[in-house]
Amino acid sequence: MNKKFFSFKKACSAKLEQSEMRSEGFSLVELLIVITIIGLLATIILSSISNSRARAYDSKIKQQLNGFRTAAEIYFGNQIPNSYTPATNSCTSGMFNDVSYANGTPGLYIAVGSLPDFTQLFCGATDSAYAVKATLYSGNEYWCVDNKGSSRMIAGTPTSGAFCP
C-alpha cells in the first residue's frame, strides 16, 4: 500500500509542477492568436480611415467648386457688359486668369487655387456660359459645376465645353 501511495504522490506532484509552470506565462499559440486578432483589427481600422480621407478630399473639391460658382457669378455681374470672358480648356485664360476683380475681391484663379494637389481642372467659357470640372480623389470621376446651377459627378474624361454634360 505504501508503494501505491508513493506513486500516486509522485504523479500528483508532477502534475502540480506542470500546472505551476503553465501559470507563469502564455503559450506561443496563444500569443500568435492575439497578434493575429490585433492585426485584423488594425487592418479594418486603417481601411476605414483611408475611405474617410477619400470622402473628405471629395467634399473639399465639391465645396471649392461651389464657391467657384459664386465667384463666377460675381465676376459676371462686374463685367460691363455682363459676360463671362471666353476661355479655353486650360483654366489659365479668359475669365479664369483674372487674379482680382476691379473692386479688389479675389479672382477666379485664386478661388480654385486651394484645391488638393492631385486635382486636375478642366474649364470652358463662352460669353454666356462656363463650366469647371475637377478630378475627384478616385481619379476616374469628375465633379462639374456650370452657370446653369448644375453640380454633378461625371464619368470619363470631361470635354472642354462650357456646360456640364
TrEMBL record:
Gene3D superfamilies, A to Z: Glycoprotein, Type 4 Pilin (3.30.700.10)
What Pfam families does the record tag this protein with? N_methyl
Check the record and name the InterPro entries matching this protein.
N_methyl_site, Pilin-like
Q: Which UniProt keywords apply?
A: Membrane, Methylation, Transmembrane, Transmembrane helix
CC annotations in GO:
membrane
Q: Does the keyword Membrane apply?
A: yes
Q: Quote the protein name from its UniProt record.
A: Uncharacterized protein
Organism field: Candidatus Zambryskibacteria bacterium CG10_big_fil_rev_8_21_14_0_10_34_34
| Lineage of the species this protein comes from | Bacteria, Candidatus Zambryskiibacteriota
